[in-house]
Write a structure and sequence with these properties.
The protein is α+β, with helices and mostly antiparallel strands. The chain has two domains: 64 residues, Winged helix-like DNA-binding domain superfamily/Winged helix DNA-binding domain (Arc Repressor Mutant, subunit A), CATH 1.10.10; 152 residues, 3-Layer(aba) Sandwich (Chorismate lyase). The protein contains eight helices and eight strands; from the N terminus they run H-H-H-E-E-H-E-H-E-E-H-H-E-H-E-E. A six-stranded antiparallel sheet has the order 3-4-5-8-7-6, with helices on both faces. A hairpin with a 3-residue loop joins strand 1 and strand 2. It is globular and about 60 Å long.
Amino acid sequence: MPSIERTEPPYLQIVRHIREEILSGRLAEGDRVPSARQIVADWDVALATASKALNALRAEGLVQGIPGVGTVVAAQGSLYRSARDRRLAIHRTGKIYPPGHYARIRAAELTTAPERVAAALGLDTGAPVIRRQRTTYDSDDTPVSTSTSWFDGDLAGTCPDLLVAERIEQGTSSYIEARTGRVAAAGYDQLAAGAASEDIAAELGIAPGMPVLLAQNRWVDETGRVIEYGESVSPPDRWAFYEYTIRSDAT
């Protein structure tokens, strides 16, 4: 049963909870979300608070009202799913991708680390690394992102599936955890705007030079060592979600 923490406005906690249910795939497009009265019962909040939360989700384009049905998850074609969202999906649903989405592994190989990858993994430039490249598609077979994951080459012996160009059902970090005991304790995401190269444009089915969303992520274990470094590119007009509370220090 969800409960309210008093560290931020209750309606924001409700918004975050339902948003994460959507981003993780636990609530899929067309699924009903809790009504205002159900939120009141589940969270022990006022009806005005529940209505404010649903209005905020509508403003974000995550839900929509349908007469005779209620509030349902809206079309998800414009959503960007971060490494955090994928990790959350594994935790909540046991699956990386929302219903209908899937990935094709384009390459899996042992190679040498470019300078930026070596720096991200804490290795020397030219050290052995594992590279896995994939493209993710939605239920209409439209590419929604293309990405590359990099790992220390020392994992080749203990985690041989990283070198097989097939999906790892439980996700790479969970696979590594099961094989080595190294647990992903923290994650870091970075985002930037960019322009599609010819190769990226061809993979995503867009024109070269079009604006794209660039992302880098690192998952680290409890000792601070990087388990996985990832780079991904998404087409334009996809929205990432972040929330924060601004408090005045004035007394």
